[in-house]
Amino acid sequence: xxxxxxxxxxxxxxxxxxxxxxxxxxxxxxxxxxxxxxxxxxxxxxxxxxxxxxxxxxxxxxxxxxxxxxxxxxxxxxxxxxxxxxxxxxxxxxxxxxxxxxxxxxxxxxxxxxxxxxxxxxxxxxxxxxxxxxxxxxxxxxxxxxxxxxxxxxxxxxxxxxxxxxxxxxxxxxxxxxxxxxxxxxxxxxxxxxxxxxxxxxxxxxxxxxxxxxxxxxxxxxx
Length: 223
Ligand SMILES: [Zn+2]
Hints:
The chain is mainly alpha-helical. It has 8 helices and no strands. The chain is globular. Zinc ion binds next to helix 6. The site of zinc ion has 6 residues, from helix 6.
């Protein structure tokens, strides 16, 4: 499998290329482009957060904790007093950094369900839902954010799969086929749980019509 640096590097470059291309085609503003590039890069390292005990995990949970704090500030700043906001942010940071990390390490197997196409889709949907329902982005922007994260996730899975092909090209390593999969057969229960989570997300999502419009538009640009 590819290591953390390769993943982060390739996803960052991929994100920068996509963000820049869309910006030049006036699909989004400069600020949006930066957000999109960062989401692709984040998606590119997300699948490996289930590899217990690595430096990457600590880094990723730090990043996620910072993102969670920013989200909390954006959502709560108009509604609560500064002191309360400060306490909540502290709690959110510690919870995300230590508690979520520990829970994740306890309940996941590396390259299990979290390392699958299903997870790529569910994390993308969650991103679109958060962007639309919590952060008040337009439907189109929210879908773009979701797609950016999913793109990063897919770059990661593809890279892992490429690395499992022996570089002399002759042999496949035993890990072939473990990186890029729809879901994990060993854990049908958790796969079902992920599906249920996404079903729950439906009411938070921007409309499918907006997604369809976005896809048709991008395809037209591509041609
Ligand atoms: Zn991986």
